[in-house]
Amino acid sequence: MTLLPGCRICVAPKFHLDADWLTRISVGTGVEELEGKFFPRGPWRPPTSDELALLVAPSEPTPTSRGLPMLDARPVASPTHTHPPDNSLCLFQLPEHLRDAWWDLFDAAAEADEPVKGFDEFAEKVAEFLTFKQLNTSGTQMEVLVSAANERSIRVDPATGQLSGLGSTIAPWVVWPAREQGSVPRLSAVVNLGDEATGVVILNLTLSGLATELARCAPADPPPTTVGQLVARFLSTCPDYPLVRVRLGSGEGCWLPTEGLILDGDATGKEEPNVLLLISEEESALTR
């Protein structure tokens, strides 16, 4: 299968990151199913130019002035992205002092051999920073998820303790098709708090895109009634749909589309534990 138009990747407004898309984004070959769980399947490769055009949000550079420098000296702004954060996967970065604040808390807890103290204050500072940058953090909760280096998934089945693989950023029990039902558990953002780069793996179609493609590929099947059913049916029906891996450097994060999509973390190739800050509405849809 080939990539379809869907969620696009961009740098969040008011942030300045060196995107270098060809080294930041890689494309896989689909999924493999293991005991009812789905995991990304490699090998991973750089995107083609056509794939890159589908995956990366276009930008509109601010026109530069052609006047005389001393008479018309106006600063040149960075490119303005045309896709708003609610419809894209938007990259951002926490300032170094906030990441240092987390590790100060962690080191103090490790030295005293006790739980981390002061996390609520740390979370408030992160929320204040993101709000200042106009990323909406109202009603959010934060938690830190630590997983072993080189694991192919950051999701764990609470019943078995085994890796559970790819899943939706919206809680699997939520009714599908979506209805007006107020706030639901939804993962809003993932931030890499570690020193090493890490990866997040996504399927670039939002949940409505999954439903549309599933109806085309398997029109005779009964429609799914929950988000979990929608995700499982798509992955089992379209196992060759290519996944996309996005590299997050130290302190970098990604803000996720509100509609939801399929996501997992990828710590393969790392030497140190994977340390992620999860920002969610309600409880985390990733870990529950």
Précis, in short:
The protein contains six helices and 15 strands. The chain is α+β, with helices and mostly antiparallel strands and 288 residues long. It starts with 7 loop residues before the first strand and ends in a 7-residue tail after the last strand.
Present the secondary structure layout.
Elements: E1 8-11, H1 21-24, E2 25-27, E3 30-34, E4 37-41, H2 49-55, E5 59-60, E6 80-81, E7 88-93, H3 96-112, H4 119-132, E8 140-147, E9 167-168, E10 186-192, E11 198-206, H5 207-217, H6 227-237, E12 244-248, E13 252-255, E14 261-266, E15 274-281
Parallel strand pairs: 1-7
Antiparallel strand pairs: 2-12, 3-4, 5-6, 7-13, 8-15, 9-14, 10-13, 10-15, 11-12, 11-14
Helix pairs in contact: 3-4, 5-6
